[in-house]
Write a structure and sequence with these properties.
The chain contains three helices and five strands; from the N terminus they run βααββαββ. The protein is of the alpha+beta class. It has a five-stranded antiparallel beta sheet, with helices on one face. α2 runs antiparallel to α3. The protein is globular, with a radius of gyration of 14 Å.
C-alpha cells in the first residue's frame, strides 16, 4: 500500500480500484471491521470521513486507493485511519462558499478528528486522521 507506516496492533487494510464504486465499498469495509472490533459507535463518523477522502482520491488521482484502520498497540483510546493514493500532491484545505458543491471534505476531517495530516510515500501520499475511541 502507498505510504504505509508499519504499526503494531490490530490492523485492517484494503485496496480499491479508482472507480465510483470504491466509495461505497470502502464505507462497507470500514463499518464491517469496526463492528468486528466492537467499535460501532465510531462507524458513522469513520465511514463519513473515509468517504470524503476516497472521493477526493477519485477526483484527483488514478490508480488504487488504499484504506487502512489501525488500533495501535498500547493506545486503547485511538483509532488511526489512513487513505492512500498514487498522487504525490498533498491535498489542500480550502474554504468552500455556501453555493459550492465540493470543497468541504478536508474541513470535515479537520473538525471531526483529534488530529489529521498527510505524509508522502514512495509513490503517492497518505492522508490520515485519528479518532478518539470511547472508553
Amino acid at each position: 500500500m502507498i505510504g504505509v507506516i508499519d504499526t503494531e496492533g490490530d490492523c485492517a487494510e484494503w485496496s480499491f480500484p479508482a472507480d465510483p464504486g470504491a466509495v461505497r465499498a470502502a464505507r462497507a469495509a470500514v463499518r464491517g471491521r469496526l463492528r468486528d472490533w466492537g467499535l460501532d459507535s465510531l462507524a458513522d463518523i469513520t465511514a463519513l470521513l473515509v468517504s470524503e477522502l476516497v472521493t477526493n482520491s477519485l477526483r484527483h488521482a488514478t490508480g488504487p486507493i488504499g484504506v487502512r484502520l489501525v488500533r495501535p498497540a498500547g493506545l486503547d483510546d485511538v483509532l488511526l485511519v489512513e487513505v492512500s493514493d498514487p498522487l504525490p500532491d498533498p491535498p489542500r484545505e480550502r474554504a468552500a462558499q455556501p453555493e459550492d458543491e465540493s470543497g468541504r471534505g478536508l474541513q470535515l476531517v479537520a473538525h471531526s478528528s483529534r488530529r489529521w495530516g498527510t505524509r508522502p510515500g514512495a509513490a503517492g501520499k497518505t492522508v490520515w486522521f485519528e479518532l478518539a475511541v470511547p472508553g
